[in-house]
Amino acid sequence: MRILVATDAWHPQVNGVVRTLTKLAEAAKPLGVEFTFLTPQSFRTFAMPSYRDVRLAMPRPARIAKLIEEARPDSIHIATEGPIGLMVRRYCRQRRLPFTTSFHTRFPEYVRARVPVPGSLIWRALRRFHSASRAVMAATPALARELTERGFDNVVLWPRGVDTGLFHPRAIDLCLPAPVFLSVGRVAVEKNLEAFLDLDLPGTKVVIGDGPARASLEEAYPDAIFLGEKHGEALAEIYAAADVFVFPSKTDTFGLVLLEALASGLPVAAFPVKGPRDVIGDAPVGALDQDLRSACLAALDISRQACVEFAANYTWEVSARAFVDSIRAVGAVLPGRTGAQEARFVA
């Protein structure tokens, strides 16, 4: 089975959408499923206003059609609601082709952090975008319920995973005053990093990631350590060396970094909001509190082994199988592509 994924978020961006799609494609190979990606790399791009590190594509309908037809997919999945996502949706609608979508970002909260736009208007646009999808994939049961309550149809669960071969406990010393409170992610206004950096905490605050707010935050918080983007073993070692993972965002739908931290044996401190609450639930692996400082201090007493055992329940293999099963269950296979191509899928 060959699945084409249309996404406006792609390398060299570093975010949860890119990591999710990359790991999904890797995990799907043993299932007999091949992924191809339609990304901004195939088009002219321009810098996103207020976030110049992110470049938006300028796709033309003819170019979109040519790339899709050259890929000869068995199924089409639209991962983002940006220019590429909109053009691929239009291509499918004009040809009456089935497709699926996924919901990654709380755009109403994301946009309102930058400009005063009513959230109701953005939710209306999102409902319209996803309305023709055979399956709208959501990362957690709570998010799936919320989307259904907001009028989205055909919502299904698509769980996420974590690479426990990379993220796991190990003996690493950062040679910093302990305890080390770590935050990982895009350094941008919607991530609410000031809520973490303003806290009166013992030890050291470390921030991993880059983004438009980094320069101003480094200047405003000289006592915090900003290490920029880290990947692979370098990132995994910092996770393992820290004492608490602090997740101040109130806008994320899931937060893959939560699973990466937990797999590394790092307890989580966060606000009791969707995202961390959906991932952690009642498990004894994090402290969720409206008082983020209290959550950080409480997390110091959480068992690191409990965190590792919790994260072991999330695998990319399970995630990939759920993704492919949802496509097949809703009949989102293109006409004339249900024979030998589908037979390549190993159930």
TrEMBL record:
<keyword id="KW-0808">Transferase</keyword>
<feature type="domain" description="Glycosyltransferase subfamily 4-like N-terminal">
    <location>
        <begin position="14"/>
        <end position="164"/>
    </location>
</feature>
<dbReference type="InterPro" id="IPR028098">
    <property type="entry name" value="Glyco_trans_4-like_N"/>
</dbReference>
<keyword id="KW-0328">Glycosyltransferase</keyword>
<dbReference type="Pfam" id="PF13439">
    <property type="entry name" value="Glyco_transf_4"/>
</dbReference>
<dbReference type="Pfam" id="PF13692">
    <property type="entry name" value="Glyco_trans_1_4"/>
</dbReference>
<dbReference type="InterPro" id="IPR050194">
    <property type="entry name" value="Glycosyltransferase_grp1"/>
</dbReference>
<protein>
    <submittedName>
        <fullName>Alpha-mannosyltransferase</fullName>
    </submittedName>
</protein>
<dbReference type="GO" id="GO:0016757">
    <property type="term" value="F:glycosyltransferase activity"/>
</dbReference>
